[in-house]
Design brief:
Elements (H helix, E strand, L loop, with lengths): L9 H25 L6 H8 L2 H10 L7 H26 L1
Length: about 90
C-alpha cells in the first residue's frame, strides 16, 4: 500500500506544514495584538514575533524565496482571525 504523503511533492508538503504552523502561531499573537493600543511597541512586537520562526522553518525546509508571499498571507490571516477571537470573546462576556 502506498503512503498517502508519497503522492505530494516534498516542497508542497513542507509548504503546507509551514502554512499551518504560520497560521497557528499567529492566532494567539493576533489575539494579544488586538488587546494593545494600535501602533504601540507591544502591538508592533506581536505582529512581528512570528517572522523569525517562519523564516527559520522556510530555510530549514529549503523552500525558495517565491514561497514567502504565501507565508505572509497565512500570517496576516492568522493575525486577523486572532483579532476576531478577541472581539467574539468580549461580546460573549458582555
Amino acid at each position: 500500500m502506498e503512503n498517502y504523503f508519497d503522492v505530494l511533492p516534498e516542497d508542497v508538503l513542507w509548504s503546507l506544514i509551514i502554512i499551518l504552523i504560520t497560521f497557528s502561531i499567529n492566532l494567539p499573537l493576533g489575539l494579544l495584538r488586538s488587546r494593545q493600543k494600535k501602533y504601540s511597541f507591544k502591538w508592533f512586537i506581536f505582529i512581528h514575533l512570528s517572522v523569525p520562526i517562519i523564516a527559520a522553518a522556510r530555510i530549514y525546509a529549503e523552500l525558495s524565496v517565491n514561497s514567502i508571499p504565501i507565508f505572509i498571507f497565512a500570517a496576516v490571516i492568522g493575525q486577523l482571525f486572532g483579532g476576531r477571537l478577541f472581539k467574539v470573546e468580549n461580546k460573549a462576556i458582555l
